[in-house]
Amino acid sequence: MYYLDDKEFGKVFISVRSNMRNITMRWKGGSLYMNIPPGVSKEHLEKVLNDMRPKLRVSQTKNDLSYHIGQVIECYGFKIVIVAQSKFSNKIIFSKEQKEVTIGVPQGIDLTIHNNKQWMSRALKTVAHNEAARLLPLAHRVTDRLGVVPECFEIGYGLRKLGHCTPNRVIQLSANLVFLPEDLIEYVICHELAHLTYMNHSPKFHSLVNQYVNGQEKVLEQKLKAFQWPVIR
Question: Which domains does the chain possess?
Answer without folding.
Answer: 2-62 (no CATH), 72-132 (no CATH), 133-226 (3.30.2010.10)
